[in-house]
Amino acid sequence: GLAIVDRIARCLNHPIGIRSTLGRGSMFSVTLPYGSSQQVKPQESAFALPSTIDRVAGTFVLVIENDPAAREGMQALLQSWRCSVIAADGAEAALAQLRRRNQIPNVLLADYHLDHDATGLQALSAIQALYPQPLPAVIITADRSDEMQSAVREAGYHLLNKPLKPARLRSLLAHLATAKSPAA
Fold it and tell me: Cα separation of 184 and 149, whole Å?
């Protein structure tokens, strides 16, 4: 990874820095020039796919993630793909938001390990109970055990392992969003 960063930084003429202290760790930096936001902000239309190709845009996604930074990161990623997102830290908060929104999500995403020994499987079960038809759902976890895979498969959900690859998530969302749910 550092070799790639070094090559790109040299091509862009952005100096790389390193500080290291034995027993404490290392810090790497890239020095960037100042510029105006107009110069560095890409035009949204430059990266937008036509709606006939972008099957993820417009997808209503419910995210259940107890870690605030991970939840905000997932929400920002999904919104950058033009998804409509509700993000909650657990089942109760998700249920409350869904009742207020009065719209059926197209896809449910849940981290497996939630607070107070709750699991994403339990949260998804509570959400699924609101609707007459099962909703496409994904469990996200770092647990790669056979037991985890079996539990997720038995529940009828998809499994994505951490560290999560955005391209893999987007591909799965595109697949699951092909039959978007109607509004409630």
Answer: 32
